[in-house]
Every structure is written in C-alpha cells, then in structure tokens.
Amino acid sequence: MKEIEIKIIEVDVAEVKKQLEAGGAKIIGEYEQEQTIFRKKDFKGVFRIRKSTDANGTITFYTTLKTRIERENVKAADEREQEVDSWETGEAQAASLGFTEEYFLKKHRIEYQIENVQFCLDTMHTEKEDLPTYLEIEAEEEILVLAWAEKLGFTQEQLRVWSTKDVLKHYNLFT
Length: 175
Hints:
Hypothetical Protein Pfu-838710-001
C-alpha cells in the first residue's frame, strides 16, 4: 500500500480534536505503542516491529516494511504491514532479512479517520519527559493529505516531511 503523510509538530491537542470531530472524524482508537526501527545498508527504508496496546488491554504485534518513495511536499513510502504473533517473531523476521536495530521508542497514539484519511496524534515518551504532541495526516493521495492540513488551519510552513527519527532529531534525542 502506498503511504503518503505529513507531520505537524507541537500541535494544540484539544483544538485538533475539536476540529476533527467537527469535521466528521471518528475516533478509531487510543493506544500505547512500543516500536523498534531496523535499518539495512543500501536499503531506502526501514523495517519496524510495533506492539500496540488498546484501551481494553488488547495487545497486537505488527511488522512493517517501508520503502521510501521520493516526493517533495509529503513523505511517501510503499508500506507492507502484517500482524504477527509476538515481538520475537518480528525480531526473527528483521534478522532473516538482514536488518539491524537502530532505535526503540514508546508513544501514546490517538487515531481518527475521515473517509480514507487517517489522523494520528502522537506523544512520544522519553526517560525524562513526554515530547510535545505532533499530528500525522496520512492517506493514499497527496492531495488529500495537503487539503486536510489546510482544512485544519495549518500553513505550508508548518508541514514537515519527517520520519519519526527526524522528530527525535528535532528534540536532540537522536544524533
């Protein structure tokens, strides 16, 4: 599946929720997530293992292979995700494909959806503190992502074509 997204850092969570709900967005879920990102030399992308725990305590594990697609105004990737039975299964997949661990992180995620557009409010946890929440807008078409950013009142200057690693670098948590 093609993934097109942008991030907007340091958003007003209450205001974004209000605007999303007023625009007809439905909350999909609220999760605590842990994930490890793996990289491989000469591969333009990442392999990710994610553990997602919903509000009922249900735990789901996913592996995702993302191959970057060069774009100017948005972050784009070919994304292949599958549910797996355990964290260890994901680690075994990463190793068998030649990936090595790059970093681990935890975050709180609130997901909304309007038609084919997904909105994620992500708050990453560090040992010292939680980072400011950022909004991720994702769809399969660039025009939808950019149109929704504008509908929510964000300017082109606020849009970031960043990976999660870039967010960590912005807060000097990754070198």
